[in-house]
Amino acid sequence: MKRAGLALMLALAAPAHADPFEDFGTAMKYGLPLAAAVCAERQDRLEDFAIRGLLQTALVWGMKQVFDTRPIARRPNGQGEGFPSGHTAAAFFGAADLAGKCFDDRPAAGLAGYGAAALTGASRIHAGQHTPAQVWTGALIGFSFGAASFGIGTDGAEFSIGLRF
Q1: Tens of pLDDT along 122-148?
Q2: Alpha carbon of 74 to those of 56, 69, 133, 135: distances in Å?
Q3: Residue 73: which residues within 8 A CB-CB, separation 6 or more?
Q4: Per-domain residue ranges of the chain
């Protein structure tokens, strides 16, 4: 009952938005990494996960600052700091971690995570917030950091994309 009440309070506190597809993308920006963090904690690899997540975020933020005055950073709506897409990077970070480390024996679950991340990118294009190039770059960054493992607290580093058949 507490969870239902909390969910209702959060839903009421969230601003109303006219586009459910854009809302889905924003939800996946947070939801996929959060689900991956829960899995990482359960597998005793939260430190590695957190460091990769912070580095991914720092790279995206840094690139937004460096490229802000360049044409590639111009969003379709005319604003700057569009390169790369942070929403897409975060979603693919979570999806790649889930697929490669949590769902490695369940390819359909990994595929669902990657699908949700892809829809996040599509929602950003649909909303006029990013160009396809900005979304693809965010996806590549997020995927790379999500699939990687630096080996902190384990035997070694690895790169795992999941979806093993």
Answers
A1: 999 999 999 999 999 999 999 999 999
A2: 21, 8, 11, 13
A3: 64, 67, 80, 81, 82, 83, 134
A4: 45-159
Residue 130 to residues 86, 102, 107, 158: CA-CA distances in angstroms?
10, 30, 29, 31
Residue 108, burial from CB neighbour count under 10 angstroms (0-12, 13-18, 19+): exposed
Residue 89 identity (one-letter amino acid): A
Q: Which residue has the tokens 């924003």?
A: 26
**DSSP-based three-state secondary structure for 158:** strand
Q: In whole angstroms, what is the distance from residue 86 CA to residue 90 CA?
A: 6
Tokens linked to 36:
């991956």
| CA 3 – CA 8 distance, rounded (Å) | 9
Mean pLDDT of the residues in the chain: 88
Q: Count CA within 13 A, CB hemisphere, residue 128.
A: 5
Q: Which fold has domain 45-159?
A: Vanadium-containing Chloroperoxidase; domain 1 (1.20.144)
**Tokens 């190039």 belong to residue:** 133
- What does the block give as tokens for 47? 């430190």
Tens digit of each residue's pLDDT (9 = 90 or more) over 18-67: 789 999 999 999 999 999 999 999 999 999 999 999 999 999 999 999 99
| Spatial separation of the C-alpha atoms in residues 124 and 26, rounded to whole Å | 9
Cis peptide before 84 (omega within 30 of 0): yes
